[in-house]
Amino acid sequence: MTSTPPPSTQAPSATPTAGGRDTEHLDVLIVGAGLSGIGAAWRLQDELPGKSYAVLEGRDDIGGTWDLFRYPGVRSDSDMFTLAYPFRPWRERKSMASGESIRHYISDTADEGGIRPHIRFGTKVVRSSWDSGTARWTVETRTATGEKTYTCSFLYMCSGYYNYDEGYQPEFPGRSDFAGQWVHPQFWPEDLDYAGKNVVVIGSGATAVTLIPAMAEKAGHVTMLQRSPSYLTVLPSTDPTADAMRKYLPAKLAHHLLRAQYVTLTQAFYQLARRRPERVKKVLRGLALKFLKDPSVVDEHFTPSYEPWDQRLCVVPEGDFFKAIRGGKASVVTDHIDRITPSGIRLRSGEEIDADVIVSATGLTLQPLGGMEVFVDGKQVDLGDTVAYRGLMLSGIPNLALCIGYVNASWTLRADLVSRYVPRLLKHMDRKGFAIATPRPDQKPDRPLLDLKSGYVQRSVAKFPKQGENDPWRLRQNFFLDAVGMNRGDLTRDMSFTRLIDLPATDNPSTGNTAKELAS
Fold it and tell me: What is the CATH number of the domain that holds 436?
């Protein structure tokens, strides 16, 4: 059986502010109640049950990305043996799971761990300010009833890097002329009726590849319109080996073995793609050809100009996307848009595609730290000027961690390593009497934090922290190296610590207290 972490036994405290309002203080504030945030709360309770904490969530329910995206067919493109938490086995049969089942899994984890009472729903974090005199963050939030302020000793950002308020939408000429319905997958209308209609999906990424076979079941015809091809790979949605292991082994043991197996396979394939791209191209072409049968179609629509894993690889469970094309319910057009017309889309080639519904699966807008403004001792921080320490803290910013997953494997693999590192760091600080931990780089950045050539990454790359040349300032896309480095690595390397007794004795203007007085 899976052990449930003990609930936090430390009650939050109220700190008087200069304006006379009570500000809730906690040892740790976690921002985001999605896959990362719930995992972070579980690990914190398990490792440091005496710490008080809260989870601030801008939406009204648990799930994060999996609560936001509700378009037809929404699912994981990572296997659930690595996307699920290592401490709570995935028990459903499908390893490529639907968005709804993932959302329920996250919610059930929160309930099992007693985490839900710690979540402040409808609380959007807008600004966080660090004060070295008190060794505290002041976190300003916006709620439906007004503004609310929290303070904390450590701030853990689990907000991912998608902008939930807006997706990427190019301004196509003539869009306002379109007489049909225009939809962005991030804001899918519940009442959209596309049965028997002609649908055009603009885009060729994971969202488009997921939408098309799902919509093709009811639509008259679905056309995927892409500017250029993307690499696709076919994986089974269930695993007979996994079924057998879970039948005869304890759930937790089976989950750990399957997790290790899938991590090894995905990491090996990624390394093969980077070292032997031509071999992987042949494999991916062979998979497409197996379903589509026509080499000319594969050459025109499924042979990208870039190398495998220069952009994230799209997964097609059971080949459903290819099957929809082969069966005539869907088709692919590779061309550029000239303009949107009242009845559809005119292409540069002169061809016109009729459409009753246009789905603009044109990508996401990225933002670091959920769009939160960051100030350190009164000075605003440009996150683009910072360097990521072990891919989880930022140079010059004290007592703050952020959760960034892998681009070449499931998000949770790295997220869980980060959520285990944070309690490890806090334990070290408590043992040594440290109040502040600040990463101090000894090298200059040499590449972006998200090192992908995908358009959605390149559009926002300047807003994000950078990577340094060497460890611990390099964000490695290798779970096995990270598992050693983050679980056993030197916590003091390139890190500046300040003890409580060494903090300045000057009064803090916002609270009227020094760190020593607050601690006592």
Answer: 3.50.50.60
